[in-house]
Specification:
This protein has helices at residues 10-15, 62-65, 88-101, 109-122, 196-200, 203-211, 257-268, 280-288, 326-339; strands at residues 5-6, 32-39, 42-43, 47-50, 68-70, 73-76, 84-86, 134-143, 156-165, 174-179, 216-219, 235-240, 243-247, 273-276, 292-299, 303-311, 317-319, 350-352. The protein has 359 residues and is of the alpha+beta class. The protein folds into two domains: 5-169, D-amino Acid Aminotransferase, Chain A, domain 1, CATH 3.30.470.10; 174-323, D-amino Acid Aminotransferase, subunit A, domain 2 (D-amino Acid Aminotransferase, Chain A, domain 2), CATH 3.20.10.10. The strands form two sheets. Strands 1, 2, 3, 4, 5, 6, 7, 8, 9 and 18 form a ten-stranded mixed sheet that branches. Strands 10, 11, 12, 13, 14, 15, 16 and 17 form an eight-stranded mixed sheet that branches. Helix 7 packs across helix 9 (326-339). The two termini are 26 Å apart. It binds 2-OXO-4-methylpentanoic acid.
């Protein structure tokens, strides 16, 4: 494949950008973006462009039928090391699994990597450097065919945008509403895919969660509303009798790369990890009996976010005995030390990006 072309305005866009002190998550956008168009059955030339609005016809299929998928990755530059991207090949594999489910074309690895590495390389100066901060990379693909018939699009656009970001949640542990009524996903549906529509399906419950003064929604299985699934954008773990328990994967749970890495690291550290169907009422009983002492959400954006308490809509709360628990903190540090390049990368998980500039 031919190398990514660089638009003549990119140098100016980079020159005019400065990193604000206050980052938050996903608000500040990096000054460049990558773009590649799929039509006539093939991918075209990958381009690096200044970040800015894109034009699309109002009858583009994505706007009506939500044929869209995305990924989340992070490039770290803590203490000036790196930039390091964590396990991007895993994101590429998942991107193509999502593409298959959503009737979209596979994206070649070279395009995914050139785009993600290219954006990181040109923005390496703007990757924030404090621990826990990163350049959040958002690869995504959407249907652009201009026609209102319900059928898979025959035109798509793949892009990578990026956001210099701090932590996803503000300080303090998470409060979690158990959603016993609605469903985010169901057997045979799209829950395992990283498709925008899955996140749209979670938003009504997010409003309810916020109205109850809580932060995050915990989804149960769509059929019986009995077994814990995930947290829309994060996977769920609990420490029970000093073992790490997490819902076993099925087709309505997103297979988190952070989830997979935590399971691996925990087992390496001699912690017993149990992947199983987790009955919500059994978990509540375990919390009340102090058998379940810690619980946390994990994901690319969230890393590992300890849970303070879970709650039912009735207002009943189930506080965790050790919200900032030993195991959550230990696993978070083990993971982050690899991601930030502060420890030996024994498993070949990080990819070093060579910074690029015009000067
Ligand atoms: C991620 O962790 O990258 C996610 O996709 C979660 C969220 C920001 C949607």
């Amino acid at each position: 494949m031919t190398p990514m072309t660089v638009h003549p305005e990119v140098a100016k866009a980079l020159e005019n950008f400065s990193l604000p002190e206050d980052l938050g998550f996903g608000h500040v956008m990096a000054p460049v973006m990558a773009s590649c168009i799929y039509e006539n059955g093939k991918w075209g030339q990958l381009e690096l462009l200044p970040y800015g609005p894109i034009s699309m016809y109002p009858n583009a299929k994505v706007l009506h039928y939500a044929q869209e998928i995305f990924e989340g990755m992070k490039a770290y530059r803590v203490g000036g090391l790196g930039p390091f991207i964590f396990r991007p090949q895993e994101n590429h594999l998942r991107f193509n699994r999502s593409a298959e489910r959503m009737a979209m074309p596979h994206l070649p690895l070279e395009i995914f990597m050139q785009a993600s590495l290219g954006v990181t390389a040109y923005c390496s100066h703007f990757v924030p450097r404090r621990s826990g901060e990163s350049l959040y990379l958002r690869p995504f693909m959407f249907a652009t065919e201009e026609a209102l018939g319900i059928k898979p699009s025959d035109k798509f656009r793949f892009m990578v945008i990026a956001s210099p970001s701090g932590s996803y949640f503000s300080a303090g542990g998470l409060s979690v509403l158990i959603e016993r009524f609605g469903a985010r996903a169901f057997p045979g549906g799209t829950g395992f895919a990283k498709a925008g529509g899955n996140y749209a399906a979670s938003l009504l419950a997010a409003i309810k969660t916020k109205q109850q003064g809580l932060v995050q929604t915990l989804w149960l299985d769509g059929r019986e509303k009995k077994y814990i699934e995930e947290m829309s954008g994060m996977n769920f773990f609990a420490v029970i009798d000093n073992e790490l328990h997490t819902p076993e994967l099925n087709d309505s749970i997103l297979e988190g790369i952070t989830r997979k890495s935590i399971i691996f690291l925990a087992r390496e550290a001699g912690i017993k990890v149990v992947e199983r169907k987790m009955d919500i009422d059994e978990l509540i009983a375990d919390i009340k009996a102090f058998r379940c002492t810690e619980a946390f959400a994990c994901g690319t954006a969230a890393i590992i976010a300890p849970i303070d308490f879970m709650a039912d809509e009735s207002g009943e709360r189930y506080p965790l005995q050790q919200p900032e628990g030993k195991m959550s903190l230990k696993l978070r540090e083990m993971l982050l030390a690899i991601q930030e390049g502060r420890t030996e990368d024994k498993y070949n998980w990080i990819l070093k990006v060579e910074p690029k500039s015009f000067s």
